[in-house]
Amino acid sequence: MTQRALAQLIGKTSQAVSQYEKGSTTPSQEVVERIVKFLQVPVELLYRPWVDHGSDKPVFYRSMSAATKRARDAAESKLEWIDDCVSYFESMLDLPEFSPFDMEIPSDPLLITDELIEEAAATVRAAWDVPAGPIDNMIGLLERHGVFVFMMPLGADTLDALSVDWNEAHPYVVVGTDQGNACRWRFDCAHELGHLVLHRNIDSSLLATPAVCKLIETQAHRFASALLLPEEEFVDSLYTVSLDGYRDLKPYWKTSISAMIRRTRDLGIIDDAGYRNLYISISRRRWRKIEPFDEEMAPERPALARKCLEVISTSLVGSEDEFNKMTALPEDFMMTLFGSFRRAANSPKGQIISLPMRSRK
Q1: DSSP single-letter state for residue 207
Q2: Nearest Cα to 291, choosing from 134, 138, 182, 152?
Q3: Are 225 and 259 in contact (CB under 8 A)?
Q4: What is the mean pLDDT of residues 153-178?
Q5: Coil, strand or helix at 336
Q6: Residue 358 contacts by C-beta under 8 Å, 6 or more apart in sequence?
Q7: What kind and span of H or E run contains 217?
Q8: What DSSP string runs through 235-247?
Q9: Element (H, E) at 123
Q10: H-helix or E-strand containing 259?
């Protein structure tokens, strides 16, 4: 919301709202109540001390060059709220942590080669004990190794997903649900992991250069392809380079036909002409927006954050109230992150992650 829009709602000038934001003047209690009403946030949120959320670390966006500044600002505000939630979980629980991989990645993306990207994807699969073949649950894989994944509308068609390692032990991946499907969201997660692995040390000033943004997006895409479609196993499974062949493999690899076509080109199985011809055939079959199986495949869902809240709310009396007080986040945003976790607490557990409580001194 712009300053002008909020000013009109609360009956003040844009200059007054600007002064409230800068801290040069303090709104009256009556104005505060109007702000709370129209922004639909708890009043405690407006009085919380400012927290530095590691803004020196770059936020990586899928569709980076197309994302508008307003869309990015809104998304980063959500990231700050997520950071508040995870900080509280860290104070209460022993969580799995994300660890750097045993390989050297140049800080200059111009020095990152395709061979290095393929090696990085293979290193991740080996370090995380991923069996040969398809990754059964991409979100579950990330969460078991300390990455917090969230799925929510980002309010912009130009933002598919984003990631950041403000918290190095627990990086965040946010997948936009404004558009997409099960295969696309899996690929988004693998793509964002590519940024966390390949671009952790990049100078954030380089992201102001469109050519660099395009390059690192291409690199993260190549990493996701190599991670989800490892060369040897994927090539062995590809019995024919045709749309029908890719279609048959889609339920097995849980990866879009488009992604598999691009992977075969990256591996040199088809040339650029063959790549173009396959995409022409996709258009003829009207598979550009909706591919076969898109509507049948169930999306993966995050579980780690919800599990954290479930554990603290059922283990300590009053801890849920303490969490709500400490984070002071809007109810609709909490529902977006956690859903109705109380119902989950009474359902069959099926836990994939053990989260022991920290000792409270």
Answers
A1: G
A2: 182
A3: yes
A4: 88
A5: helix
A6: 91, 92, 93, 94
A7: helix 210-228
A8: HHH---SSHHHHH
A9: helix 114-127
A10: helix 257-266
Rounded CA-CA distance 301/174 in Å is: 12
How buried is residue 197: exposed, middle or buried, by Cβ count under 10 Å (0-12/13-18/19+)?
buried
Task: Tell me which DSSP letter residue 131 carries.
Answer: P
> DSSP state, 146?
T
Distances (CA, A) of 7 to 2, 20, 69, 160, 349: 9, 11, 21, 31, 48
Please count the CA atoms within 13 angstroms of the CA of 265 that sit on its side-chain side: 16
pTM: 0.88
Q: How high is the pLDDT of residue 348?
A: 34
Taking the C-alpha atoms of residue 242 and residue 257, their distance in angstroms, rounded to an integer, is 10
Distance CA 321, CA 140 (A): 28
Scored b (16 or more CB within 10 A) or e, 248-278 reads ebbeebbbbbbbbbbbbbbbebbeeeebeeb
How many angstroms separate the CA atoms of 211 and 224, rounded? 20
Structure tokens that stand for 289 in this block:
């927006």
Residue with tokens 């709370």: 36
Measured in degrees and rounded to the nearest 5, phi and psi for residue 148 equal -85, 125
Paired tokens of 24: 């040069």
323-353 per-position pLDDT tens digit: 888 888 888 898 888 875 443 443 333 344 5
> Which three-class secondary structure state does DSSP give residue 60?
strand
Instruction: Give the burial class of 241: count Cβ atoms within 10 A of its Cβ; 0-12 exposed, 13-18 middle, 19 or more buried.
Output: middle
Q: How many CB atoms lie within 10 A of CB 20?
A: 21
Count of Cβ atoms closer than 10 Å to residue 7 Cβ: 18
Closest Cα partner for 187 from 75, 83, 300?
A: 300
The amino acid present at 291, given as its one-letter code, is E
